[in-house]
Amino acid sequence: MKFASVNMKDNYKIVEKAVEDCGIALEFASDNLKNNPTIVLKAISDCGVALEFVSKNLKDNYNIVLKAVSQNGIALQFASANMRKNPTIIQIAVSNCSIKL
User: Fold this and answer.
1) DSSP 100
2) Theoretical Cys-Cys bridge with 1: which of 13, 25, 31, 94, CB 3.0 to 4.6 Å?
3) How many domains does the chain have?
4) Residues 56, 82: contact at Cβ < 8 Å?
5) Is residue 46 in some structural domain?
6) pLDDT string in tens for the chain (101-residue length)
7) Could you tell me if 70 and 44 are in contact, meaning their C-beta atoms sit under 8 angstroms apart?
8) Domain-embedded: residue 90
């Protein structure tokens, strides 16, 4: 994805396949697709820390952040400030983190 053309980085099917295989590939997707909940859920299902590359709007989405921290508690650092204050999100992040907060 890193070296793909701008058009390919905004191609739903190509990005979908890329993030299913390697969630961190979301880094190279278009801003449009970084704001697409379906694409984002596929990416963070593979790699919770792909939350780093999600749109600001979706970093404040409870279900998105919950999925990310359930996959990898370290993803909490990439959630919005609002989500980092949510007790449920924090509890799940801590229980899914090899490094305790």
Assistant:
1) -
2) 25
3) 1
4) no
5) yes
6) 788 899 999 999 999 999 999 999 999 999 999 999 999 999 999 999 999 999 999 999 999 999 999 999 999 999 999 999 999 999 999 998 876 54
7) no
8) yes
